[in-house]
Amino acid sequence: MRIVLVGPPGAGKGTQAAYLAKNLKVPHISTGDLFRANISQGTPLGKLAKSYMDAGNLVPDEVTIAMAQERMAQPDAANGFLLDGFPRNVSQAKALDEALATDGVKLDAVLDLEVPEDEVVTRIAGRRVCRNDSAHVFHVTYSPPKTEGVCDLCGGELYQRDDDSEETVRTRLEVYHTQTEPIIDHYRAQGLVVTISALGKVTEVTERAMAALERGRAA
Questions:
Q1: Keyword set for this entry (predicted)?
Q2: Core-most of 149, 170, 174, 218, by most CB within 10 Å?
């Protein structure tokens, strides 16, 4: 299956992408991973992207699209893929449509992870990270430390990252609503959108997504 995963920040896209890709036996293609791989390997696209980033500019859509096309053309993606973080806007969605049409294939589904805005804020703004080890992550509501402000694992100080502040989260949500959410209507017009609730345990959301995708494929 060829799937695009979309949803607001805090919807759990990265976690669900990993589980779904494993269940569907297709590669998980993340734009973040693509950028890191191309830049670290010094590919022509990586060097081009880095030149924009070093200058403090946004990487143009055409560079992002070229990276995604190159990755989708690799042998392990011949029978499908799961795109996470791409497309980010309608322009990229249209470019993806054209690229796939050129290859004689098309998307099977666009999986929309739906989460209420207040829940997104609660999920992200409630995170607390250990200053000694950023892999030690707690949550004031869902996984609180035994002692407030202290890491259970090493005793380090827990703090809220700037990116996790409520103000920053709401700004990120506004960017999502303005730039990325319109792709849902773009794909809904093609009959591709499958919307599920991303509330609940990770395994419950995965099962819900797999069932929805199977229903879509059988329709």
A1: Kinase, Transferase
A2: 170
Give me the residue spans of the domains in the chain.
Answer: 2-218
Instruction: Output the pLDDT for position 216.
Output: 72
Averages of pLDDT over runs of 10 residues in the chain (219 residues) are 95 93 94 92 94 88 90 92 94 92 92 96 95 94 95 96 94 94 96 95 94 80
Which of these is catalytic: 50, 94, 170, 172?
172
* 2-218 fold: Rossmann fold (3.40.50)
User: Rounded CA gap, 47 and 49, in Å?
Assistant: 5
Q: Is 161 a catalytic residue?
A: yes
Is the pTM here over 0.70, yes or no?
Answer: yes
Q: Which two tokens stand for residue 208?
A: 């819900």
109-114/193-197 β-pairing: parallel
One-letter amino acid for residue 29 of the chain: I
Q: Is 13 assigned a catalytic role? A: yes
Does 131 participate in catalysis according to the annotation?
no
